[in-house]
Design brief:
The chain is an alpha/beta fold. The protein has 21 helices and 24 strands. α6 packs across α15, α7 runs antiparallel to α12 and α8 packs across α12.
Length: 574
């Protein structure tokens, strides 16, 4: 049974392939087209998935699309006649829906197949149903509470649910215009971060401030009767819609707060204005208000489910600071967040919804890794090295490579690490990574300014051997997808300043020997040399999607001040 899942005409478009219930391939289109959050039809991702699954077009049994234009139709209609949104807002929504209904035509053209002979049924899966399926059915839990919370999809921002061994049931729903994701996005824009997806920058800013605006934010977002609502006087999206452009399929959102918000919090920061303590404090207050709201929703959900396991999904599940507090500040004791909780994961979520909910399959295959993308051979690496006329490189065997690279890192080198299949999701997990010595206090500024070309306040994360987490974190850690920010032990603070935030926390990736042996060996060799069982690990990119191919990696290596690049067993140096 082959199910092709697609997230199309939406930010972070992607494709995934399920074969007999097992996730065979998944990749974001942005990796191919080199445009972050690309939002068109994921042609390259679809072709890759079929190639990886060794699948001919006629062998596709089902196609799952991660939105349903007909979902919540009455609410959409009622909103339109009562609020009379702008003509452009209505036009944009109708155009997107029209594109959605052309999926069969687009697939037929892409796969050189006549529409008449293209037989697999196309299933339109409501946005949050896809989020829930992509979280719960990949989790290790036989039963769990589920919270899906994001900006908006199919007119819904938040859904709570309960899942058992083979199914899930929705328990509550929060509809447009009330959205926790919209709140975070609106304040992100207000703080002068204009790019789609910049919320993670505000999350980093929050650690530098104090939540002194909590009274104001409790006026902006109101929790009541197990749900929340926005005080709409501070926003305009419910009246005018959100002005979103799709210039060459790159989403761009215009600010949608009202003048009331500026009267409450002060003037808007322009992107080029310097950041000050007021901005840090607003970010900290936003973060705390988000946490309070999610914890309130989780308390209400626990009362309905009374189970200790929780799955969180949707774009807000990318808030790793919030995630790190859930098992300490709510009744839930076990937490699972997939490597793609945002809209990129809708592709495999829609496919799993078809597998379990439509086809009624009970077989489940929990995941322990996110390596579902492309991989390359040693011949591919050698060919690209030749094209760039690189002469300073050497081939090492599996024993000497980690020893040589770990030694160089311990001596101050910053190294690109390109191995195996690429990771799915926004975080490098040891296969498309930039690595450095976490003991260096100056390393964050050096990488931010000389290599990544990004704001100096943004922190980096540690990749740590799972056997040593209790020495570096205050409570047991299992975080294979770098999904939680956690307090660092007092004894470790001075050991690894390069990966610790200003509030003495870090966002670890726990590395397992059984899941990623080459990466584990490298970190373990660094441990033997230095006594520190972790490396600074950030994504191999520079204000672009994570590198996809050896060509991308070598280009990045040559245009930045990094010291070396590992491609498989080849080690390139400047």
């Amino acid at each position: 049974m082959n199910i092709l899942g697609i997230n199309a005409f939406h930010a972070d478009s992607s494709a995934a392939l399920l074969q007999n219930g097992i996730l065979t391939a998944a990749v974001e289109e942005e990796r191919f087209v080199r445009k972050k959050h690309w939002a068109g039809f994921p042609e390259n991702a679809i072709v890759f998935c079929l190639k990886k699954g060794k699948l001919a077009p006629e062998e596709i049994d089902h196609v799952a699309i991660s939105f349903n234009p007909q979902a919540n139709f009455f609410r959409k209609f009622l909103y339109a006649i009562t609020h009379r949104p702008s003509v452009s807002w209505i036009r944009n929504r109708l155009m997107r829906q029209a594109e959605g209904f052309n999926i069969k035509k687009r697939l037929s053209i892409l796969l050189s197949f006549s529409q008449r002979n293209f037989k697999p049924p196309i299933h339109y899966i409501e946005h949050h149903n896809a989020h829930i399926a992509g979280g719960f059915f990949l989790s290790p839990f036989k039963n769990s509470a589920i919270l899906s919370v994001d900006g908006m999809g199919d007119f819904v921002s938040t859904v709570s649910a309960y899942g058992d061994i083979k199914d899930f049931k929705r328990l509550s729903t929060i509809f447009f215009p009330h959205s926790l994701g919209y709140l975070y996005n609106a304040i992100t824009l207000y703080l002068g971060f204009p790019n789609y997806g910049d919320e993670y920058k505000v999350m980093a800013l929050a650690s530098m401030g104090k939540p002194v605006y909590m009274n104001e934010f409790r006026d902006i977002i109101i929790c009541r009767e197990g749900a929340f609502r926005l005080n709409l006087k501070f926003f305009s999206h419910h009246l005018k819609g959100i002005r979103m452009k799709w210039d060459h399929s790159i989403p761009e959102v215009k600010p949608y707060h009202s003048e009331e918000l500026e009267r409450l919090l002060g003037p808007v920061r322009k992107p080029d204005d310097p950041l000050n303590q007021q901005h840090y404090n607003i970010a900290a207050s936003l973060q705390k208000a988000t946490e309070e709201t999610v914890f309130y929703l989780l308390e209400a959900l626990y009362k309905k489910c009374s189970c200790n396991s929780l799955v969180v999904t949707g774009g807000v599940a990318l808030n790793s600071v919030l995630n790190g507090k859930i098992t300490n500040q709510t009744p839930f004791k076990e937490l699972f967040i997939s490597p793609g909780p945002g809209d990129n994961g809708l592709a495999y979520g829609a496919a799993y919804y078809v597998w379990h909910k439509i086809l009624k399959k009970t077989e489940r295959y929990p995941i322990n890794h996110a390596y579902w993308g492309n991989e390359y051979s040693e011949d591919d690496f050698l060919e690209e090295i030749g094209k760039f006329k690189i002469t300073k490189y050497k081939y090492y065997n599996d024993h000497d490579l980690p020893l040589t690279v770990a030694t160089d890192i311990s001596n101050g080198a910053i190294i690109g690490w390109f191995q195996g299949r690429e990771e799915f999701g926004p975080r490098a997990l040891g296969n498309r990574s930039l690595l450095a010595d976490p003991r260096r206090a100056d390393i964050r500024g050096l990488i931010n300014t000389k290599i990544k070309g990004r704001e100096s306040f943004r922190p980096f994360a540690p990749a740590i051997l799972e056997e040593y987490t209790d020495e570096y974190f205050d409570f047991p850690v299992h975080s294979p997808f770098m999904e939680k920010v956690l307090p660092v032990t007092e004894s470790a603070i001075n050991k690894i300043p390069g990966v610790i935030h200003s509030d003495h926390t870090a966002r670890p990736q726990t590395v397992s020997k059984s899941v990623n042996l080459p990466f584990w060996k490298l970190i373990d060799t660094f441990r033997v040399i230095t006594g520190v069982p972790l490396l600074l690990n950030t994504s191999l990119n520079e204000n672009e999607p994570i590198v996809h191919s050896p060509f991308d990696a070598i280009q990045f290596f040559l245009r930045t001040e990094m010291d070396g690049l590992v491609l498989g067993n080849y080690y390139l140096k400047k």
